[in-house]
């Protein structure tokens, strides 16, 4: 069994929040909010970036079956360009929290920045997805949900190989953007190199 902590403070309802896709050139940023039973764990649960795709899927199903509550929040590429990626990541977390059937007593957020949500106390935990089960669970839900979106978008824009890179700035993805332009799913405020990404949009 992993060594992740069940909670920050015993006896209260804690929601873990994390996002996926913050460093991507294309696609939405996805956040998840997850409330777990304090006695629930899974041997494969950890920071989703350190898990194989097969492990993430196994844990995702276990989370969906056992979580007290979980929800997804999304910010589109257009919103990211309008308000910047940090604000979009926080907004996506707020949207996930807005949908929870159960209002948490405390919010555990992966990272070092957050904004007040409904006056519920929160704690920012750097690398929290490797420390707390609820944040790790949120990272798995956000990552698997976003990967599925990028695989679907790949069918419309196969030239960027989003089924493999999921929108992250791999060398191939950057070359394709520079040679073929950007799509409607790209974040035009993100620079791939010089010259920047502001080229003719491919619909």
Would you kindly provide a written description of the structure presented here, covering whatever features stand out?
The chain has helices at 53-66, 77-83, 85-99, 133-154, 162-165, 171-180, and strands at residues 14-20, 29-35, 69-75, 106-110, 122-125, 182-183, 201-202. The protein is an alpha/beta fold. Strands 3-2-1-4-5 form a five-stranded mixed beta sheet. A two-stranded parallel ribbon has the order 6-7. Strand 1 (14-20) and strand 2 (29-35) form a beta hairpin. Helix 2 (77-83) crosses helix 3. The longest helix is centred in the last third of the chain and has 22 residues, at 133-154. It is globular and about 55 Å long.
List the defining traits of the structure above.
two-stranded parallel ribbon; 203 residues; single chain; five-stranded mixed sheet; 35% helix; alpha/beta
Q: Biggest sheet, open or closed, and with what strands and sense?
A: 5 strands, mixed
Number of strands: 7
State mean pLDDT (0 to 100 scale). 94
Number of alpha- plus pi-helical segments: 6
What fraction, in percent, of the residue positions are helical? 25-40%
Q: Strand content of the residues, in percent?
A: 15-25%
Q: Give the terminus-to-terminus CA distance.
A: 47 Å
Major sheet: arrangement of strands: 3-2-1-4-5
């Amino acid at each position: 069994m992993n060594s992740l902590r069940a909670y920050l403070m015993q006896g209260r309802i804690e929601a873990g929040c994390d996002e996926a896709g913050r460093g991507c050139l294309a696609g939405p940023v996805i956040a998840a909010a997850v409330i777990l039973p304090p006695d629930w764990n899974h041997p494969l649960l950890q920071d989703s970036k350190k898990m194989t795709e097969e492990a993430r899927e196994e844990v995702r199903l276990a989370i969906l079956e056992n979580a007290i509550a979980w929800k997804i929040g999304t910010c589109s590429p257009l919103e990211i360009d309008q308000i910047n990626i940090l604000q979009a990541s926080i907004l996506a977390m707020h949207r996930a929290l807005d949908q929870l059937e159960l209002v948490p007593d405390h919010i555990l957020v992966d990272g070092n920045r957050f904004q007040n949500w409904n006056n519920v106390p929160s704690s920012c935990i750097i690398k929290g997805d490797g420390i707390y089960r609820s944040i790790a669970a949120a990272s798995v839900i956000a990552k698997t949900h976003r990967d599925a979106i990028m695989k679907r978008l790949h069918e419309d824009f196969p030239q960027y190989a989003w089924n493999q890179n999921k929108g992250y700035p791999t060398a191939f993805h950057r070359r394709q953007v520079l040679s073929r332009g950007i799509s409607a799913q790209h974040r035009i405020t993100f620079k791939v190199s010089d010259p920047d990404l502001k080229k003719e949009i491919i619909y």
